[in-house]
Amino acid sequence: MNEPSLTPEQQALFDSHLWMAAHAAKHRCVGISYDEAYAAACEGVFEAAKSFDPAKQILFRTYAKRRVHGAIVDYVRALQGRKGQKQFCRLMTEDENDSGNLRSRHDALAIDDTTGQDLENDEFWEVACVGLSATEKAIVTGYYRDGHTMKEVAEELGVCESRVSQINKHMLPRMRPRIERHMSL
After folding, report:
1. Distance between CA 8 and CA 1 in Å, rounded?
2. Among 108, 173, 174, 171, which Cα is nearest to 144's?
3. From residue 177, how far is each of 84, 104, 144 by CA, in Å?
4. Residue 115: what pLDDT?
5. Domain at 8-97: CATH code
6. Residues of the chain with pLDDT under 70
7. Which of 21, 77, 81, 116 fits 41 for a cystine, CB–CB 3.0-4.6 Å?
8. pLDDT confidence of residue 36
């Protein structure tokens, strides 16, 4: 199968933005290698270069970011379909990585592979919440289990979003060992 070739302008965009593929691959999904993620991300950069329209007055990097992210996610979804297993993709967006401290929710809990684990199972969340205060349990339930934003959890608790983040940061190191032990059973 022959891929359509790029124009010289498109090729220049592709060549000068391969770093995006390397960056995305470094923060790849669990369950795939760096090389697999890099190949998928390169396809994303290629597709972005091929379809980019400079007349829309948007930076190529901005345009390509979603294509690169989407290419890796699509690869993981296809791979999961072939293997027939359930995994969480802990691919992080560039915005999250650039901030230096935001991570995907399940990555923060150290949940890598949920094969055989049902995260909808109340037992999993009970184990995760052992020894936590009522406020910490509310954060785990709202943010990690139910998928609410930190802002929504903060409003529910009647505190500011930064306080929820602060509590979350301090409880995670206590939770991780229990979760890891539970998942290894």
Report:
1. 21
2. 108
3. 28, 18, 16
4. 37
5. 1.10.1740
6. 1-4, 28-31, 80-121, 182-185
7. 21
8. 87
